[in-house]
Amino acid sequence: MELSTLKKYRKIVPGATFIFFLIPVYQYFTDQVFKVDEAVKFVIEGYGSVLAFIIGTFFSSLKIRRIRNKKTHAEIDSNIKSKLIEHGLTIDVDESKKKEIMSSRQLMYVFYYFIDNDKSLKEKSKLVRDNGLTWTSTADVAILGCVFSWLYFILILIVGVKPLFVFSGLLIGCIGFLSGAILHPLSVKNHIDLGNEQLEFIFCNYKKELQKKVNGLFK
Q1: Average pLDDT over the chain, rounded to whole?
Q2: Which pLDDT value is given to residue 126?
Q3: What is the Cα–Cα distance from 19 to 55, expressed in whole angstroms?
Q4: What are phi and psi of 43, to 5 degrees?
Q5: What is the spatial distance between Cα 134 and Cα 140, in angstroms, rounded to a whole number?
Q6: pTM of the entire predicted model
Q7: Burial (0-12, 13-18, 19+ Cβ within 10 Å), 145
Q8: Which pLDDT value is given to residue 39?
Q9: Which of 31, 143, 154, 183 is the least buried, fewest Cβ under 10 Å from its Cβ?
Q10: With b meaning 16 or more CB within 10 Å and e meaning fewer, what string describes 63-92?
Q11: What is the C-alpha separation between 196 and 203, in angstroms, rounded?
């Protein structure tokens, strides 16, 4: 997956999820039955795709996903930084300096340097982006699932116990929970595994250059 495509889908996915989760509310207040295939067609082919992009852009601007993924993002980056230090640092340095470098983005810039300058690594990075979409999408679904399950609970308190809202709230809550508790951690594990594959390639083919660059960070 190209970077531009990834950025586009990271807006469309939460927007489309928002629309699908909102369908029961639309059905209730308009008395219009929306079939699943009709909803999918609306999002993919109709004005829904534009609406999804607009909603997704607004959702992304709120930075909620970034807050939700902060811990796992740090976990992924920490794995890369630690292995670059392990295989690239060959000189004695103070622990304080090592912590300083680890907390900065400099080691990630070293990592990206090798990715951008090797065709094989560039191809591998497409798989990383594919999984990156899963990583962010599962977080989006978990966030929106939580928001909409509470929305339907509030609607039940306002308009009474309606089977449509009870079923929708429970289903959306389950979808959000499964996405956040199961699918998201799996995507993080896959992301780390894919990163390790890239790192192994760098260690095998660019060891001396890696050591030069990593050691250079501490001089």
Answers
A1: 89
A2: 87
A3: 9
A4: -70, -40
A5: 10
A6: 0.87
A7: buried
A8: 61
A9: 31
A10: ebbeebbeebeeebbebbbebbbebbbeee
A11: 10
